Amino acid sequence: xxxxxxxxxxxxxxxxEAARTSFIGALKLYVGRRLRPGNRAxxxxxxxxxxxxxIGKEPATPEEISTAMHGxxxxxxxSAMNRATQEQMWASVQDTLLRExxxxxxxxxxxxxxxxxxxxxxxxxxxxxxEVIRRSEIHLQPGGYTLDRGDDDFLAGAFxxxxxxxxxxxxxxxxxxxKAEIIIRLLENRYPGFTPTRILDMACSAGSSSTPxxxxxxxxxxxxxxIGPGLLRYAHARAEALGVAVHxxxxxxxxxxxxxxxxxxxxxxxxxxxxxxxxxxxxMRESHRLLxxxxxxxxxxxxxxxxxxxxxxxxxxxxxxxxxxxPFWKVYATxxxxxxxxxxxxxxxxxxxxxxxxxxHKFRWYVATAKKA
Length: 373
Ligand SMILES: C[S@@+](CC[C@H](N)C(=O)[O-])C[C@H]1O[C@@H](n2cnc3c(N)ncnc32)[C@H](O)[C@@H]1O
Known about the structure:
- By secondary structure, the chain is an alpha/beta fold.
- Helix content is 48%, strand content 14%.
- The radius of gyration is 21 Å and the shape is globular.
């Protein structure tokens, strides 16, 4: 299955909109993947000696390297370009989405009002939304995850799916296998014969990782939660457009409200790097509480681990924290996932933390998985 399947809730770009979005995607790839590594030469040849002259010693820590590079005109130019292409990506997608909103609203209403719906949507205006998520435009997504302009507003989810597709291609992620399909393959290899009947996808956003579970395990009841109402309205219609049964709920991962032992499989995708350590710890405790004995959780995320990076690369990857509104970037990159999982109740021998490879592309994801005893 494609990572970005076609469906009725996708905005249709005009020729010129598609050309511009495609250009910006290619420019992002070029700035982020081709130009970025060259910054290291500017560090070695310019910023490091300049810093040594000014301060009397070479920069040695990520913070000192950051000070040195912030004074370097080549890095300043690169950083401004990187920021500008991210802003332009959202602006480009936004033009299509706003032009398409009247048509998509009709599609959305039709999908949500169908009598033969497969799944459901439950919103909770009293849902506890973390303050930092409410007031942040994470990775500069306009309006952020909690954008909510009324009862028929699905723009947050439309932004996430359309912008996210351009964004991930520009990060070098493949377009064939979805993140969920990689995890389904991991389940087959790691837990042969495991066939979940109740599945929960935590922090589901637009639901792109929720639907592949319903497709892979058609006998299972699939639930998915997030705190963003606009994300969930979109996710619900998207799943219906794909003809897949998923039950979406507006709930916080730290306190999901589902009964103890009510799932065989609990997953999250690309969520931990946007959560505080306390939230990730609570999500692990919820995973343990929600699983039946023998049940499995898998939490997958970006392959960003500072323990594998030297001081320069820690500075380099820190860019997203400072300029791409990723408040928990470093918290995630330095967290102790095995420790958080064993503190949540999983036995150390049942925990695996490592990498999962994308089969169609040279890209690796980080995974933390455990089986409940
Ligand atoms: C990067 S997106 C997840 C993407 C999605 N799982 C996918 O694979 O396409 C991170 C999501 O985490 C959600 N989130 C952050 N904190 C949360 C919390 N405490 N409870 C529930 N959802 C949360 C955000 O609203 C956002 O939709």
